[in-house]
């Protein structure tokens, strides 16, 4: 498994000299996270990790915990003051979009090369012998060999160019694999065939030299077809980098000399003042200098609640403003912004991911070295036994047949079949290497909000427990008490009241009573909203079973009382746990896969959800780079790690994990960073993916055996190991074996069964 050095930059802590903390023009220069806040975050993270590993089941967790703590301790602020606007973001996006481990171009060019090569192959099949054997349908005439040479040259340089580019990259990385093996085969075939044309028709060498134009053309066609099948099967990789940039609005309301001017976000600079209206996206990182609001940062941080923001509080570009109008002083644009740093984490993780090797690459590398060694041995042996002409011919034959046609279809045909089955089961695969990681999978790291829970913090139930009040009365009175509050629970109640178009009376003299709850007067009558703890303390009877049933789903329950502490009703709200989450966790445990929760949400809520689901290891209040570092530290144990998430804050860890699984209802950025997408957003579909992945890997391995099996038989025979016994590989037998292995590979791929079938 490839490892990557840990990132040492803290993207959230802005160090600003204390001199700048003075009040200027009633606008206070504030720091989003000063040194004291950083220490608090570090201590909080350490406590979370200590709690998590204290409950862990694996001995190695203690070592992982220490590594993670050291890593997060070492965060430093990235003091790069350059501005990266949209043009620079685009530039970065294109850099990573063009990166491809196989050096392949886009699908349009690939198909063009395939169809052109296929059409040009027809006259070669008619005019050229197959492995030296004349077929009944073949014809020849004076000068036909020059036509074959011309067409073969076009096919080699045009159709074979992807394999040249791919092999160049593999050799540069000192990791020859499938592209190198293919390019070796077609290159030897082409230049030996070129030699045969001149030897036979210009120099009239005897015996005549056989050409390999037939093998050259068909090999290029089959290999191009294999790549097209695989690329068609896998969802095209759109750019997560671009999607991150799209989280920001296009325009910002800049305040200049008392006037509001709409400008492009890319033109914002630090210390600019902008106005952000209710419901608008925050254009850049900054500090509130005027106004009060609540901001939904779940799109960015994963926090499921709206966060109350006052003057001097920091805001993150890309998050959504609530119902208040605010003025913000910009503190971070371009490379200093939160989203830009997340973007950087994703792109680095994607680069690292592209280095992962597949079983096909390993087999191809082995065949490459075996063919080279066997070719050299064959040449030397036959040179001393016979002559250089025969030695040359035998060595070339060995190198040409080292890459069988079946090997080019072994994986693509299985991927195509698996992708079809996956689509029928709500699974989309974007990276076939994820299948091969399942057998090593030991840790399943997962986000909470939107992954294990529904992702919407809202009123889930409200009910009257007093005959004098209706269910609607309970909601109306509660909304009246909570009116004007920015508390997350209050926002949930007010949002529900607004959704139902309730006309409620606003409470007077509202105040928070320590140890009791919120109280106020409505129409001259006093009401209060309290928690279950207050009911227990005052011995107020209530239905415990109802409370436990709602709490098990992660709900927070508030009770409405009158002035005499009589129970009138209750309201529950929260981020409900998905029904399938518990089944998924139990299934992972049965497979000896340890579930671990990584969330940007508060530790209390995270622990509650984890307890209900049976998850022992919990990390709360994590930032995106914290999640990625935890993923990498678990990878350092030598086992494969799966990450399941849905938010922008999950994107770096999804890209870094051995298997990244995105919830279909999640953000585009998370989806584009993942290997697998759960279309139905059903956690239980993860188990379907694991089952299908195991079956797919088995079929891949079987097909690789069938594809490489041809070489096991043909290579030594072509080298002449049985020559002392009077047997050399007949070209026709070689062609039959090659065709048979290709047919077996195709049939075996179609035998891959649905995950719902035995």
UniProtKB/TrEMBL annotation:
Q: Which organism is it from?
A: bioreactor metagenome
Q: Name one GO cellular component term.
A: endomembrane system
Biological process (GO) annotations held by this record are: copper ion homeostasis
- Which PANTHER family does this UniProt record tie to the protein? ATP7, ISOFORM B, P-TYPE CU(+) TRANSPORTER
| Phylogenetic classification of the source organism | unclassified sequences, metagenomes, ecological metagenomes
Q: What is its main location?
A: membrane
Region annotation (Disordered) maps to 36-76
For membrane topology, the record states: Multi-pass membrane protein
Query: Which Pfam families does the protein's record reference?
Result: E1-E2_ATPase (PF00122), Hydrolase (PF00702)
Ranges of compositional bias, category Basic and acidic residues: 36-49
Q: Which residues form the P-type ATPase A domain?
A: 246-346
Q: What is this protein called?
A: Copper-exporting P-type ATPase B
Q: Indicate the segments annotated as coiled coil, or none if absent.
A: none
